[in-house]
């Protein structure tokens, strides 16, 4: 019995001595989107939550060709693939699920499916409520035209941290990336929108790019569509300026940007984007309003707030349009 115990006590557990390089050697299941490593630390004294994003491995490259989105690995990629539409650059967006408005972003790692980030970010989180919070990390991909796609996400419940027994807690972990099913299953028309605000120049730029889920004719071809971009001011929605795109035709997106001048306070205006079916009598199909909380909600509101918080930076999001 003593001999058996001695052998058991002296036996090495290889998982305790696994190097950071060795942890990357794992079985990749079918449909795998990638894995991300990060460290979560919390200080009760300062009520500071710190997240270090270390690295991601085996990220899937997604194609945006033809208005559709599908994932491919290097082995699956063919010579017919449009390289301009293949997502090859990645970054990570970090936020608390209860407050998506406040978020951080890593730098973009170009042409890397195994990027190293090693970047640190922090949030103020009250100690009494940390157990009810959850951290979300989204992996975003960009193609050569700077179009963005959500590759997937992972969540980490802060209740996992043992903050009750220690004033300072730190945990290094990893999570597999999963699809955002809500993002994937929406059937409403969607439009990729870029917003940029320049405070010194009092200038707002609205860019319209790719489209998804557009209505079709009976023969399966897209209807003739153009977009109207309308700048409104105040709660009464006074129309200040209207601009429109060319007809979409057989293109994947509009790829047009519009400049609105003399806007000293973006919080006092909002932008309504309308997709219109061209014909003898034009028919408005769907719309989205980007602005403050009195006129917008959900992703449209967050997009507008992000633009204000990040002046002179191009803030891009897919926007779901509501049918008339």
TrEMBL record:
One of its GO terms (molecular function) is calcium-dependent phospholipid binding. GO terms for biological process: calcium-ion regulated exocytosis. It comes from the Eukaryota. Residues 32-171, 187-319 form the C2 domain. One of its GO terms (cellular component) is exocytic vesicle. Gene3D superfamilies: C2 domain (2.60.40.150). Pfam families: C2. SMART domains: C2. This is Synaptotagmin-15.
